[in-house]
Every structure is written in C-alpha cells, then in structure tokens.
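Target protein
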Amino acid sequence: MAQLWGGRFTKETDEAVYQFNASIGFDQKMYRQDIEGSIAHSKMLGKQGIISQEDVDAIIAGLEGILKDIESGELEISSRYEDIHSFVEANLIDRIGDAGKRLHTGRSRNDQVALDMKLYTRNVIDNTDVLLKDLLTVLLDIIKNNTDTYMPGFTHLQKAQPTTLAHHMSAYFEMFLRDRQRLADIRKRMNLCPLGSGAMAGTTYPLDRAYTAELLGFDGPTRNSMDSVSDRDYVIELLSAFSTVMMHLSRFSEELIVWNSNEYRFVEMDDAYSTGSSIMPQKKNPDIAELVRGKTGRVYGALISILTTMKGLPLAYNKDMQEDKEMAFDAFETVGDCLYLFTGMLSTISFRKDVMAKSAMNGFTNATDAADYLVNKGVPFRDAHGIIGRMVLLCIDKNCAIEDLSMDEFKELCPAFEEDIYDAISLETCVNKRLTLGAPGQDAMNKVIAMYEAYLADEKAL
C-alpha cells in the first residue's frame, strides 16, 4: 500500500479498509489534470522563491515524463496506490528524488482534488459543447432542407394541425441550444481556481494564487478556502444540465421510435444504426434510440446520488465527497456517447415525406383552418367550431378527408362555404399563412433559419 501519510500511525491500515478508502480505481481518469495542476503549482512555488528553480525544472521534467509514459502505456497506473495523487507524487519522487518531495509544499490533497475535479469537469463541458454543436449542425441541415415537408403536428399524441418537418426539428434545435447555454453558464460560474486553499484554512506560505489560476486558465482564485475544498456545486449543476440534455435526447428518441414503427413509417433508420432479431428475420429495431432513452435514467441517478451525498455535509472537506466522482464520470461518458451516436443516427435517417404529408391530410389537421375560413366569412367562431365538428363526423362516416367533400356537401353544412375553401384548407396554405415568428410558415421559418446560421457561425447569442 503506497500512501502519502502515515507518520502519526503505529500500524498498517487494514487491507479491507484500505481498499474501501482507495479511489484510484476511478480517479485515475484525472491523471492529466493532476499533472497539469502540479506543474502549475511548482511554477508558482519557484516564482515565489519557496523552492529553487533547479527543483522546479526537475519537477516539471519529471511530471512531463510521467505524463508521456502513462499515455504511451509504458507506465501503468497501479492499484498499489491510494489515489491518483499518491501515484503521481510517488513516481515523481522515484524519478527525481528529494526535489519531488518539495512539490506538495503549500498544498493539501483537499485543494488538489478540488482542482483536479474542476479541471476535469471543465474539459467535459468543452467536449460536450462540441458534440452539441455537431448535433445542432445536423439539425439545421434537416431544417433547411424540409421547410416544405408537410406533416401532422401533435398534441396529446393526436393529430392537431399541419406543420413541417423543419418546424418540428426547430423545436429540438431550441432545446439543444438552451443546453449549450446552460453549459456556458456553468463553465463561467465554476471557473475559479481552488488551489492554494490548503486543507481548509489556506497556508502560511506566500503563494501567488492569482498566478496559479492564470496558468491553469481560470478567471481567478476562489475567495473562501473552506468553500473551495468542499464545493461540488459545479458537479451538481453539470449533472443537472446533463440530465436535461438526456431528457431532450430521450424525447427525441421516443418520437423517432414511434415514427419508425410500422404504423407511422415517417422515417427509415439507417442499417448502420439499427439491429435485427435473433428469431424474427423481418425485424429492424431502432436500438440506438432505445438505448439513449434508457440511459437517461442512468444520468438522472448520478444527479440524485451527488445531491444525496452532499445534503448533510458540514464544512469543510469530508471523505463522503469522494463519492462525487464514480457516478459522475459514468454520467459524463454516457452523455458524450449518447450525443455522438444520436447525431450519427439522425444524420443518416431517411424521412418519408410522402407518408408524412398523407398522414397530415388524413388526420383532419386542417379542421382549425376550416373553422377560421368560416370566421373570415362572418360566421361567429363558436358556430364555426360546431359546424366543423359536424363536418369531421361526416368525414369519419364517409372515411374521407375534409378536402374530399364535394361543394354540395360543404354548402349543406354551411352556405358560407365557397370554392376557395379547397385552397384555404390545403396543407401548403394552412402552413404558409402562419407567418408570426416561431410559426411553420416559409417566411417565418426562413427568418429563424437565418438566426440559427448566424448563431452557429459566430456563436451569436439567441
């Protein structure tokens, strides 16, 4: 057992206790962040004259060598060590001797792990932002190519009014745009450096915390050492934001699963993102969409776990906080995988435009427009609503669409109907006369598309 403490103890830790206490099985993911933080800390110690420049140079060379050897596979992270911090420091001392023992001057594992977790989480945010932008790019391409792809819009999973595939996809664009904004907010709020806080009360060494923060890309140092070592708000916020990302992906997946069903046939999943059945040769299953939907609960679980862990902790650091990592790391990886695979699946989907349009025609989605037609002819809205209700009953009895009724049948329902009713209730008219910003009409959608293009081109705020 290799650990950084023990002088006060007179016997070895029980092996079961050691294993229960150890975190290297999961915190080894932060090896790069731990090394980057130690390099910055050593540079600051040298700048302040706390250790010699000769020691700084030896420490940096040793740490860079460890990083290179880990990434080449020459140096394996061993479970003999309690955590990633003890692994890196012990290997550094083995390589450079006493200079390595000076690295931890003015630092505690408490502020060290707080730093590592912030650096790791910040990197996750940046990587996820790229994945979200890739998804938005695919969505925008679908939107631009489908402003005249008519389909039914739904409420209560029942056909409601005609819309377009572009308009439907734009709703998801808005969701994932907000997800990016949430990540940016979290990144800005968390971007203060905890290193230099010590165990919980700072240090007597003349550290330049602002310099360390600058070296590591932070906006500045944290302002309270107790909060610095016990703050995991940023993990909670990120898992909350990721839960929202997964909720959006899950809603989207659910719709694609429904649309892919034999009853809807709105979409055809690409073979590369589908699987078959071991017994039913005709099957083509939307497994990626189903797995994304299923893995949403996994991310929710990580959020509930860290909230529960933190809810009763007094200041400052407590060992309970080691539980901030394992499920969070799993959630981070899950969200990244889901975004990557969902984007690939979406980019290869074939949309069956003819089936979508036919579904909109056969679902009385133009009933509201027929009522509006009568209102424009001077019929009170409540009367018009009743007339169109009777019209729908007639169409159900005749097994036809509203536009299939003859002029005589229209007149029998209400004398106000004229020949222009057929144009008024066509899918194209129903959609394109809706021109308010946010509506599915061509002109309205083109304005929104221009906003989306500007946003993705230069990150212009929306």
Q: What stands out?
A: The first helix runs from residue 15 to 21. The chain has 20 helices and four strands. The longest strand covers residues 158-164. The mean pLDDT is 93.
